[in-house]
Amino acid sequence: MNNKTIPYGKQTITDADIEAMVTVLKSDFLTQGPTIAEFETKFAEYVGAKYAVALSNGTAALHLCAMALNVTENSKVITTPITFAASANCVRYCGGEVYFADIDPDTFLLDIHKVRALLEKHPKGYFQGIIPVDFAGNTVDLEAFRKLADEFGCWIIEDACHAPGGYFIDSKNIQQKCGNGNFADLAIFSFHPVKHIATGEGGMITTNNKELYDKLMLLRTHGITKDANKFKNKISEVEQGGWYYEMQELGYNYRLTDFQAALGISQLTRANENLQRRKTLAKQYDNAFANSPIITPISFEGNAYHLYVIQVENRLGLYEHLRKNNIFAQVHYVPTHLMPYYQQFGHKKGDFPHAENYYSKCLSIPMYHSLSDEEQAYVVDCILKF
Ligand SMILES: *Cc1c(COP(=O)(O)O)cnc(C)c1O
After folding, report:
1. CATH classification at residue 166
2. 252 and 344 belong to one structural domain
3. What residue owns the CA closest to ligand 1's atom 3?
4. CA neighbours within 13 Å on the CB side: how many for 14?
5. Does residue 190's CB lie within 6 angstroms of at least one atom of ligand 1?
6. Distance separating alpha carbons of residues 39 and 264, to the nearest angstrom
7. Is the pTM of this model over 0.90?
8. With pLDDT > 90 as the criterion, what percentage of the chain qualifies?
9. What's the domain range around 348?
């Protein structure tokens, strides 16, 4: 066991995955083919949303969300400092200003009370949007965020990269699946290899808003449409051929390929069983660390268990001890407000004490569905011995 490295997260590719990809590789469409729409339909169904837009990665998904919601130089948007930088960067791509609010020290999620306090410090209309993150797999209470957002005229982009298949329980005791579009305007997912569903690179936006959906579809391919019902130019008779297209917005090429979509569809068929496996692993970690000084993470019902984050006093020591034993733990995340890029806008150390305190102790230990009981026991043993 000692010479095999155990990362904090990784993909599993089965023979069925490979076959599904090969089938598409042998078909007529490598991109812009029917497999994309099939993946979108199945993914939308999985999360319980009306519409889904497949994209080249999660960051592209965030960028298009910000564009579709009209983020400009004048826009001010609130997000959490404990997330991957992309959650904030999408606002900057459109020239907007990023504000952070601190996390809840127990759940590590964006603290809604801190968001409210920030919103109340400014006149209504000052902020345009909120980007909460379903951190580590716990889905934020989007019902509460929706209420708050409506009060202040804000939109919501749910960064759901950590929680496909996750849900929260709403005030009527109903399970609300992460990304189902009932509360957030838009939700985004990533299919990077460390995420639940892996397509290499890949992303998805889900929504129940038809208008936003149409806009996203346009922006995904250069802002170009071939739909005759949507043309804006007066088209002369000689131009009314099937070749005609119009570029109506400054869009991008953020498309996913069809063979990646095939991989995504194949992976999606195992999503539920993989989620169960992650849940089992989390329970086993919880039990193993129950009588130790290690602080284990809080888990709500509906947790999708993307990460298993422990908190320890000597984090560096443990991190290096694990590396020596071929266990590659990771820190999620270096707070975004402390990135040199964000510090130039005036964010600084001390701004968000809970986020910074969490960052000083957190360590993500191996959590992925193919982690075996034997490997997990080895990880636990290495940690407890330290
Ligand atoms: C992975 C991730 C992203 C970015 O996704 P990419 O597909 O790598 O671009 C954004 N936000 C969060 C929270 C993530 O975990």
Report:
1. 3.40.640.10
2. no
3. 58
4. 16
5. yes
6. 7
7. yes
8. 96
9. 270-385
